[in-house]
Specification:
It is built from 4 helices and 8 strands, in the order H-H-E-E-E-E-E-E-E-H-E-H. By secondary structure, the protein is α+β, with helices and mostly antiparallel strands. Strands 2-3-4-8-7 form a 5-stranded mixed β-sheet. Helix 1 runs antiparallel to helix 4. The longest helix is centred in the first third of the chain and has 35 residues.
Length: 222
């Protein structure tokens, strides 16, 4: 088997480019850290709105029939059972298999920031889910999603899901910073590597990647 090894000049330029990318990644973290509060503010839903905290005035649905009869509602779930029955990505939303008090199961997008608990621990007591509404959608068209969310038990209805997220749902600061940091670091490496190698080749330290022969002028008398 033939083995290919990168030349030492390529390794050196890559190492320097990655070192520079580490620095630009740190700069990106500082910038995004200063914008994180605005991100959280944009994705914080007021109480009573879709995805917001549900107070005692919000109707507590018990069954699918209740969901369909009320424009807005909440669901009370024991502990963290509402996110232990399966979940999957549907379009850009992460939907959970939510068990209603009646035992029926429906898909639900849930803003975890707005879940209220009746006790100090999220594992005991009751969880009062955010304000929700029914969104009619044929979930059966996405078989991959159904395989994910129904891995343990099938949904009772697949012609709608519950939106308890609205415009809410915030990521941790680390998760918020990560995509920006990654993009900045990749761009840094893609720019710095060829520039560093070209500079080294110009100074005569590295060999050129490509050598172009100069066109010789031939006299018409030759």
């Amino acid at each position: 088997m033939r083995r290919y090894r990168l030349r030492a000049d390529i390794w050196l330029c890559l190492c320097v480019a990655f070192l520079i990318a580490w620095g630009t990644g740190k700069i990106a973290d500082v910038v995004t850290e200063n914008t994180y509060d605005r991100y959280v503010e944009r994705h914080t839903v007021d109480a009573g709105n879709i995805g917001g905290t549900a107070d005692d005035s919000v109707y507590q649905a018990q069954s699918v029939e209740d969901l369909l009869l009320h424009p807005t509602f909440t669901v009370v779930s024991p502990g963290i059972e509402y996110r232990n029955r399966g979940a999957g990505y549907y379009n850009s939303y992460y939907l959970y298999s939510l068990t209603l008090p009646s035992g029926e199961k429906v898909a639900a997008a849930i803003n975890m920031d707005s879940v209220r608990t009746t006790e100090d621990s999220i594992y005991s007591g009751l969880s009062i889910l955010p304000v929700g509404r029914v969104v009619y959608e044929d979930l059966s068209k996405n078989q991959t999603f159904l395989n994910q969310i129904e891995f343990s038990e099938p949904l009772t209805r697949t012609d709608f899901y519950i939106d308890m997220r609205g415009n809410g749902g915030t990521m941790s600061m680390e998760a918020y910073q990560e995509p920006y940091r990654d993009v900045v670091q990749v761009i840094t490496v893609l720019i710095c590597f060829p520039l560093l190698h070209a500079l080294g080749a110009k100074l005569g330290i590295f060999p050129y990647f490509f050598r172009f022969k100069k066109k010789q002028n031939v006299s018409e008398w030759d």
